[in-house]
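Issue: ligand-bound run for magnesium ion - logging full I/O for the record.

Environment: standard queue, default settings, no custom constraints.

Inputs:
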Amino acid sequence: MSRRRVLVLGAGPAQLGLLAAARTSGCFVIAADRDPGAPGFRFADRRAIVSAEDEPALGQLAEAEEVDGVIAPGIDWPVAIAARITARLGLPHPLAPETAVLATSKLEQREHFREAGVPQVAWETCRTVEEARDAAGRLGYPLVVKAPDRQGQRGLGLVREPDDLDGAAEEALRVSRSSLAILEQYAPGRELTVNAFSFRGRFVPLTLTDREVADPPAFGVALAHVWPSSLEPAAIGAAVDAARAAAAALGIEDGPTYTQILATPEGPRVVELAARLGGGHDADLCRAALGVDLNGLALASAFGEEIDEAALVPRALAGGACVRFLVAPPGPLAEVRGVDEAEELDGIELVLVYREPGYILTPLRRGSDRAGAILAVGDSRSEALARAAAASELVRFEIADAEALV
Ligand SMILES: Nc1ncnc2c1ncn2[C@@H]1O[C@H](COP(=O)(O)OP(=O)(O)OP(=O)(O)O)[C@@H](O)[C@H]1O
Ligand SMILES: [Mg+2]
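Outputs:
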């Protein structure tokens, strides 16, 4: 049998796990990313220096490379591109283009959730700063402003008081791909991620992880995903029900989903659903925790292969597991030390460094400012967390003397 050929949209940190899995499984891997230094290129048989958002170029590439499947594993906007390219080329795909479009718009999602009664925070849209002020008057403070079609905290802002509204609304409107921004009530509480896989309309929840986030100015940036969740079983069950309802509301019947949930005192509130793998090594965490290979399942669904139900049956391989992101000091990266030592510690499954020497590290504001990640397992979540913390102590990002570079 000839090697299956897959086009992977994106070769950044969020696609590392799937790219590695595709390579290991023997696929011919074509990876597209506009950044020639993207860390995932090391797993590619062919590198295309093309933006994962450049639909015409990606369509031509898929055709010329005679691929068997296209997958956008870690970032949202290309999810719809993958669905459209495969539909046009008559290739299998887990999502119909119309469904994929819903999954890439926070606004379409909120509208569908409202129709279907999926629990969410109160929200409104605005086209101007004046409209934002009116909406804020109705919603009250604190509130969150977002661009409906961005991710990775682009255009995302927490607004505690009226004085801060104009700047946040301007920024969200500026980066929005449409002319709209969303304003929503700030929901207090813990956060959960429901990593699931659907096939033939059946939603199978897998790892339910706590999302530990940074404080402003890095509002909303995940610093860790921790399994199992420390929330009460009833709250976890309600979050899973909400994620299932969210997938149903968008018409998602096949493939991986990643659903962000705020667990408020009044019950779960769906932040959004992504019709893809999580971008924070969630599939690797799932395999380490439950023995379920979400990367392999996502690839199988991209090739239109029959899903073996047995592959979805969890077997607890660890008592706890976590992904802890690494945050480096800002400046030009000279060298990263201690990775080998960190990898040798008990329970350390992965130590990932996202950037090469020469890269200019930026202060933590968004997810893309994170410098790496550690995946750790243990007998309990606290042991996994302690192991990840110990490993992260060993990894040192050496910053070059900026003057010496001149
Ligand atoms: N209404 C809200 N109330 C409280 N916190 C919120 C709210 N909306 C967003 N957040 C916080 O911001 C984070 C990111 O929100 P959201 O997913 O909407 O933005 P994003 O740009 O898609 O980020 P990411 O790419 O990390 O998912 C959430 O996980 C949560 O911590
Ligand atoms: Mg999000």
